[in-house]
Specification:
A hairpin with a 6-residue loop joins strand 1 and strand 2 (about 25-30). The protein has eight helices and two strands. The termini are far apart. By secondary structure, it is mainly alpha-helical. The radius of gyration is 22 Å and the shape is globular. It has one domain. It has helices at about 5-15, 30-50, 60-80, 85-105, 110-115, 130-165, 175-215, 220-260; strands at about 20, 25-30.
Length: about 260
């Protein structure tokens, strides 16, 4: 923290996004740029590993990518019992992307903002998953894909029947029709809660972690390492678990979409 800057000003500065526009229509440029750079980076690594893959003695990169693939594939097979070529790659992509975006929280708080300030950039937040726009946007993307594949798997009438005839089933045409509004109301709440909880869970954990690192940075330099070191080690578990949870819930939602009720 620079001299002459109060603690509240320092916190507000680090929690301020580099953005264009105001209010609801504001676009957080830092979130978009950092998330895209991370996405391009890990996709390039995976592409390089796939391009240079060999059936002979594999290199370290191939071993690492195969380990990640086996990990994601094992989790999907245990959770998803339908048939789709999308779920496995999607689960691996979601895990790696969320993990790497979370990992940005482990970088020193002032490092990247100080570097970009040399080029006249005043604000920069480097943890995309500490931005609710990013996490809710990803959750909404998963939600729309789940609806699409649910309709593709069950048909339009099957999807509508699931919305209006569950969770309460009634015998007889009149009873079924009477229960449809109640079922639809409850089902809509259930479906809307999925992306909201999926996005806010990730955002809440990473925002809290980011804020704690900022508060630690306010302390004298000699105590920052004493508190920051243990918190960083613990936070490695947090960012990994949150990436795993996002991947698993995505897989579970797709599994529910493919199930016939």
């Amino acid at each position: 923290m620079s001299s002459g800057t109060s603690g509240s000003e320092y916190i507000k500065h680090h929690l301020h996004h580099l953005s264009i526009g105001d209010g609801f229509w504001a676009v957080h440029i830092d979130t978009v740029i950092v998330s895209w750079i991370i996405g391009i980076f890990f996709l390039s690594v995976l592409y390089t590993a796939a391009k240079n893959a060999t059936s002979d003695v594999p290199n370290k990169l191939q071993n690492f990518v195969e380990f990640l693939y086996d990990f994601a594939d094992g989790q999907v097979k245990d959770t998803f019992h339908g048939k789709s070529r999308l779920i496995g790659p999607l689960a691996l992509t979601v895990f790696l992307w969320v993990f790497l975006m979370n990992f940005m929280d482990l970088l020193p708080v002032d490092l990247l903002p100080m570097i970009v300030s040399l080029f006249g950039v005043e604000y920069l937040r480097v943890v995309p998953t500490a931005d609710p726009n990013q996490t809710l946007g990803m959750a909404l993307g998963v939600f729309l894909l789940v609806i699409f594949y649910s309709i593709l798997q069950k048909g339009v009438m099957g999807f509508l029947k699931e919305l209006t005839c569950t969770p309460f089933k009634a015998k007889g045409t009149i009873a079924t029709i009477c229960m449809m509004p109640i079922n639809l109301f409850l089902k809509l709440i259930e479906e809307i809660a999925k992306p909201v909880s999926l996005g806010l869970r990730l955002f809440g954990n990473l925002y809290a972690g980011e804020l704690i690192f900022i508060l630690i940075a306010l302390m004298p330099w000699w105590i920052q390492w004493v508190l920051g070191g243990p918190w960083a080690i613990f936070h490695i578990l947090v960012i990994t678990v949150q990436a795993f949870v996002f991947m698993m819930l995505t897989t579970v939602y797709f599994s529910l979409a493919f199930e016939e009720h």
